[in-house]
Backbone:
């Protein structure tokens, strides 16, 4: 059994060289020095019966106590988490045993707010004690960047460099990314998300970046995954305890870089009941192919309507293969791929049938479950994690249901907000020059 004191030194790299890190060190470092990703050596056990469902925050504090008490954040983490996660997480029953867990009620209308806001406060807490500074280098396929920009803006000792693919995010997402914020520097990269992600990974090991105090807030960083575990606990306990569903529900996760799925798996391994996980991909389907054929290889990114999932080579696949030795992954995880045509049809059908309008990523999840049921692969209750607000994809919604959704005021404000963005090639040397110029690193 893992004790709280043990938790201060049990974060190891997936590649086995950079080991024995405290949580604070793992958060500040981001990517391990051997190029791997940090995972806890042992996952703390959480008894579901001891977890409160009185509110999302009450539940969050109960679960995170097993992860954060006994670390350097012992005296401060509760205040940081309560500040970071001060927004609702509704569970919406649809029909046919389908439930939607809406994760888009934070400041940037995306599930990325959970991880980005919590990480920003924990890292800022650590830097305030060490007196160090960090440049957060982030690749985004849509929603990560705006959540990181909003969550980290103005925090002492931190500057943020955002890389996003030109033409690879929606107009609303780009508007969120390039809004001028203190300490945030957006770069529009000529290339795909995978090009942006390669630049991030290369920077950590490239000689021309050796003087830059780098960290990352992508799902590469373990601090992103810890708070993302919370909404899985919340959704499952509310459906089983609150809504009286007897069978452990399947949890369906719209998936791209596989960080969100990894967080759900970690929640399950810590004690959260679940009837399995469904990774719902668009046509960027490496993980789907891998589950059918362990020899599958990653491919080039294909642009789709569910653009935040347009990832050809998912980083967190490395974590999943460490969490699941051998063939164990196939016993708990299933996956399939959904086309743009199927995404649009699902958005339209769900809206007509229930009045609910999912965004394209959530629609991929709904289609995945319904298709699995039609094929006989899936049965029983299912929770679909709704990862973004439909108003972030107005053109896609209009193609599906014939009109654009009403735009929340927080998006409308950004139309007139000051903007800042730099266009660059997918070149590590050019990026290094531009980052030094803007951050002084």
Residues:
């Amino acid at each position: 059994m893992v004790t709280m004191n043990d938790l201060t030194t049990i974060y190891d790299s997936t590649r086995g060289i950079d080991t024995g890190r405290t949580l604070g060190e793992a958060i500040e470092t981001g990517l391990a020095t051997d190029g791997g990703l940090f995972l806890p050596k042992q996952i703390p056990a959480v008894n579901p019966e001891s977890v409160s469902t009185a509110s999302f925050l009450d539940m969050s504090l109960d679960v995170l106590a097993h992860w954060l008490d006994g670390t350097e954040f012992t005296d401060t983490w509760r205040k940081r988490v309560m500040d970071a996660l001060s927004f609702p997480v509704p569970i919406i029953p649809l029909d046919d045993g389908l439930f939607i867990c809406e994760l888009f009620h934070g400041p940037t209308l995306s599930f990325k707010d959970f991880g980005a806001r919590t990480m920003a406060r924990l890292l800022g807490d650590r830097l305030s004690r060490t007196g160090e500074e960090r440049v957060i280098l982030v690749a985004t396929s849509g929603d990560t960047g705006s959540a990181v920009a909003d969550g980290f803006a103005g925090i002492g000792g931190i500057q943020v460099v955002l890389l996003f693919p030109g033409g690879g995010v929606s107009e609303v997402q780009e508007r969120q990314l390039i809004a001028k914020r203190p300490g945030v520097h957006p770069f529009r990269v000529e290339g795909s998300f995978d090009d942006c992600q390669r630049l991030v990974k290369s920077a950590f090991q490239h000689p021309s970046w050796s003087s830059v105090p780098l960290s990352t807030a992508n799902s590469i960083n373990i601090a992103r995954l810890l708070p993302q575990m919370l909404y899985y606990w919340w959704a499952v306990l509310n459906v089983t305890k609150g809504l009286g569903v007897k069978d452990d529900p399947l949890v369906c996760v719209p998936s791209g870089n596989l960080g969100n799925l990894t967080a759900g798996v970690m929640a399950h391994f810590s004690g959260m009941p679940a009837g399995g996980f469904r990774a719902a991909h668009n046509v960027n389907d490496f993980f789907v192919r891998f589950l059918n054929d362990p020899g599958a290889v990653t491919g080039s990114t294909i642009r789709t309507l569910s653009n935040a999932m347009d990832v050809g080579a998912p980083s967190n696949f490395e974590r999943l293969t460490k969490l699941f030795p051998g063939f164990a992954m196939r016993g708990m995880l299933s996956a399939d791929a959904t086309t743009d045509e199927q995404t649009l049809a699902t958005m339209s059908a769900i809206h007509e049938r229930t009045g609910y309008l999912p965004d394209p990523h959530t629609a991929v999840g709904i289609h995945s479950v319904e298709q699995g049921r039609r094929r006989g692969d899936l049965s029983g209750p299912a929770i679909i994690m709704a990862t973004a607000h439909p108003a972030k994809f107005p053109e896609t919604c209009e193609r599906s249901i014939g009109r654009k959704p009403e735009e929340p005021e927080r998006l409308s404000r950004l139309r007139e907000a000051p903007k800042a963005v730099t266009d660059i090639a997918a070149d590590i040397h050019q990026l290094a020059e531009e980052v030094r110029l803007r951050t002084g690193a």
